[in-house]
């Protein structure tokens, strides 16, 4: 974390805005994951690697300092040279929570101008894309940093990548164990080992399950893989005293928990203590019995696996009841989340596009709302997607304009409309929808970007006025001025839309906000494209022909209906609602599940609260099955 910028540096503004956004976002995510501000004070132990390791690594540490000379995670990391840390642990051990605690502490206490840690989902990384480019694209997508500024922040090593979930990148072997050949995980380690900051390695933070990280070193793997010059720490099983402290602090009525607390204290190696050895399982137990039920039921299961099934079956109903929201009944929430989990785990044949160009980017854990469209059947969604412009534009044209009195006057309009519709059909049926686009105004643009924006406006004014004067040469003064004004406004707008207009970092970025942002951008494109020519034709050929031209060109080729990503998303949610796979208002439901603690945020995507919850929901399509598990 020794990289910094001076206050007068043009990068200082975007960097400080991003620091604030990261602190607010990750702090809120930490609270959602913990279901409270209370967390298990986990400890960790240094696992030194043979050969090269980071200097300054202590043998032990804790999430928070306990006053006995053991440092908290932020102090532990600051002492590392270089700042390269690998966090490992068992499933549910708290790797992500530890990373979030580190990120929030660093963004809260670090001096102005120093590097900012940014968390990325490992599973969402296409390893064919270099780390520098992937990180810059992440800054643009999540924090709305202009592409050129984001790349310079990365090049200056002012961003510390926090790669979360290396174990989620590759499938397991048939026997359920980690694959030592895991090609994507190996590619990530190689990319991080090539991530330099001058003559030294650049700072990075990596989280991974212990089993998977060890598998990369097995003899039958692709060669020993180690994150060079790093400190590897492994999260310890939760100590009995820490588990008791956590349950007492989380419990609404600690007296109800006395049988459980007594069992943990008297039998620290019993079935219950063995099952509740991770923060995730402690959180499950505390959430299930937070309001109602008898915690003594935790003493009935005869094995840790049985207790896991028992808690997972009761977790979702308990969360929904605690939210007390009549919009989302327990059964409906279970079925909707089951469909998403099943699609992520094992897509059906009709959900798998056969051509690579039609395959959405899917990591198996990231829930990208606008990339879920194959859930409703990739053939059907693409077919209806291609029909939208053909079914929409002619009816809109007829309803708003009416039949022209003389078809010869509107012949050009009809030709443009047909070309526009053909173009839209071709785009939406041949190519996969691209990334969503967001519109904004960057107040912290670099000087050269401000100059480029100014020249775009100047050229737009000159070109628009020149085009208006040329088209109005044979018309009266007033129509000529009207044409010049319309063309000038739309030419300036088109010039600005051709640039990456991005806003300052948002302190509350959510995946569902990508959709309205894309709609706004496409609407402005439609106005700019259709208005430029439609306004001119309105003046020269009359209101009816001008409006027809505006609708035909603006809705079709101009951008609104040629915006494949958002259009396909709208088609998908309608078909998914018809099939009862998902709610029509998918975005608000995913946000509700996020606030409830069933999902979490990872950059521009949602994820299930824990991989075990995703796998359990994928295997249980009906809430009735959960009830049978509870009764077993």
The major beta sheet can be summarized as:
7 strands, mixed
Distance from first to last alpha carbon = 52 Å
Oligomer: single chain
Number of strands: 11
Uncertain runs: 356-361, 426-433, 502-508, 625-632
User: Helix tally?
Assistant: 23
Rg, Cα atoms, Å? 28 Å
Describe the model.
This protein is an alpha/beta fold and 632 residues long. The protein contains 23 helices and eleven strands. A seven-stranded mixed sheet has the order 2-1-9-3-8-5-4. A hairpin with a 2-residue loop joins strand 10 (599-602) and strand 11 (605-608). It is globular and about 95 Å long. The two termini are 52 Å apart.
Task: Provide a brief overview of the structure.
With 632 residues, the protein is α/β, with parallel strands linked by helices. It is built from 23 helices and eleven strands. A seven-stranded mixed beta sheet has the order 2-1-9-3-8-5-4. A two-stranded antiparallel ribbon has the order 6-7. Strands 10-11 form a two-stranded antiparallel ribbon.
